[in-house]
Amino acid sequence: MADACNLLDEDCSGVVNDDNLDVYEPNDDEEQIHDLGEVDHPLFGGDALEVSGLTLHNADDVDWFRFYADDEIFDNVEITIQILVPPNGTYVVELYRVDGDYDDPSDYTLEDSVAGNGFMEMSYRGALFEDDEDDWAIRVAATSWHEQACTLNYRLDIFN
Ligand SMILES: [Ca+2]
Ligand SMILES: [Ca+2]
Ligand SMILES: [Ca+2]
Ligand SMILES: [Ca+2]
């Protein structure tokens, strides 16, 4: 039996809706964090990041991403993250600065967050005379999950 997008694990695999895992799964496990690499302005040899084909395939799916913003005195971080999620359900997206170790939750500082659906945007402007605002993490979860969320992908566009 196929595991349809709903609240049930119809094929009894132990994972609800695992036919709809996104390209960065498995990351229901909050320990897993997908590394997106570097995001930086083209003038400084970098590029924006476009991440698509993502899903929250069940109510417990939590997606974590990390990226490197290459903060310099002559190139301060100025991060904008555009999020396009399905038009139903309620999503929460959080931007964390990580100062130290990605494996240590006490090194994470919440800098911005949004909640809702459809198009949302977060931003963070770094301190001019600090050059260690390099490491970042994004958490995406649903506080009110909608059954269409398996098939309606979400995307992130990250600029610095
Ligand atoms: Ca199901
Ligand atoms: Ca299943
Ligand atoms: Ca996911
Ligand atoms: Ca800075």
* Overall radius of gyration: 17 Å
* Cα separation of the termini: 45 Å
The computed structural class is mainly beta
The level-1 CATH class: Mainly Beta
Number of domains: 1
User: Helix coverage percent of residues?
Assistant: under 10%
Helical segment count = 0
Describe this structure in words.
The radius of gyration is 17 Å and the shape is elongated. It contains no helices and nine strands. The protein has strands spanning about 35-40, 50-55, 65-70, 80-85, 90-100, 110-115, 120-125, 135-145, 155-160. It is mainly β and about 160 residues long. Strands 1-3-8-5-6 form a five-stranded mixed β-sheet, with no helix packed on it. It binds calcium ion (CA) (4 copies). One calcium ion binds near residues 77, 126, 127 and 130.
Structural descriptors:
binds calcium ion, 160 residues, 4-stranded antiparallel sheet, single chain, 5-stranded mixed sheet, mainly beta, Jelly Rolls, 0% helix
Describe how the helices and strands are arranged:
Blueprint: E1 34-38, E2 49-54, E3 63-68, E4 78-84, E5 90-98, E6 108-116, E7 119-125, E8 135-144, E9 154-159
Parallel strand pairs: 1-3
Antiparallel strand pairs: 2-9, 3-8, 4-7, 4-9, 5-6, 5-8
This protein binds calcium ion (4 copies).
Give me a quick take on this structure.
The chain is mostly beta strands and 160 residues long. The protein is built from no helices and 9 strands.
